[in-house]
Design a protein that fits this description.
Elements lengths: L55 H4 L14 E4 H9 L11 H7 L9 E4 L9 E4 L1 E2 L1 H9 L3 E4 L5
Length: about 160
Amino acid sequence: MKLNEIRDNDGATHYRKRVGRGIGSGIGKTGGRGVKGQKSRSGVAIKGFEGGQMPLHRRLPKRGFNNIFAKKFNAVSVGRVQQAIDAGKLDASNPVTVASLKEAGVVRRILDGVRLLSDGEITAKVTFEIEGASKAAIEAVTKAGGSVKIVGEED
């Protein structure tokens, strides 16, 4: 094999179809839209239209709802917090809050708060001041000697 014999595999390069650029192109004149009719014209959007018959999305019953008052929490595992403490990004002596977790890079953006989950293990004695936590996560933190204070909860 010589350098002048090197070439791409067959079908490796795909050329862009230039629709409606003369009859010699194979997709000129009508541009692959067929002849006449609604779908050959521009500005036609008939998705879901079934020729006057009641469309499927209107025949099926409505179900469920969107709770506009639902809060969106960042889910953080105790194992991830322990990793941040081991890496020196979080200080275990100070209370762990949403702001400190964001500063440490554990959460990317602050939503409605943080919910602590029990995935992984925690060995450091840490005080959490967060918006939510699972029972197993609270148990894991208290077992390690720390505490969890739920912010925004009336006592």
